[in-house]
Amino acid sequence: MGEAPLRLYMAMSVDGFIAGPDDRKGQELGRDGGRLFNWLDDRMSAGIDGQVYREAMATGAVISGRRTFELADRWQGDHHDGVPIHVLTHHVDASDVPPGNTKFYTDVNVCAAEAREASRDRAVLVHGAGAAQALLAAGQLDELELHVVPVLLGGGRRLFEATELGHIELEPVRQLQGRDATHLRYRIVH
Hints:
Layout: E1 6-13, E2 17-19, H1 48-57, E3 61-65, H2 66-71, E4 85-88, E5 102-105, H3 108-118, E6 124-127, H4 129-137, E7 143-149, E8 157-158, E9 170-177, E10 182-188
């Protein structure tokens, strides 16, 4: 690729939900949405789930949607290892000073460029459906790392709603079977 890839890391149910119904402050993953993260119980293991977790934590920057950032309590200003956090938002309030090494962006292309530069050639971890869709629409998202959990949530927040983006091809890169998730990585064919 030549530059740091922007890679979405997202746990999801087989029916495409990244959070259960009624996701909000105090119930950030929605009803039953915590089920999507049981595989993280093995994040410190030497196995597949641990490998995938360590890869995510080796990323050099984060791009998040505003909603995800707020529901995560702004990660108290540090997602992991003090890496820069770039938050895509529709509006920046000058009085809202983001914590830690965090910056707000309304321009998706500027956000992507600055995150790539800040990552120091390591992958950029992307969080949130809104951020993923905005980056995909701008032609900036490079890869999807989907942690598919064997459950049907039946409702909640979908990763990809119907969009105006049309047909997008994905190239399978790898498939790893963890204890409670299948980790799929796809390269987006631009």
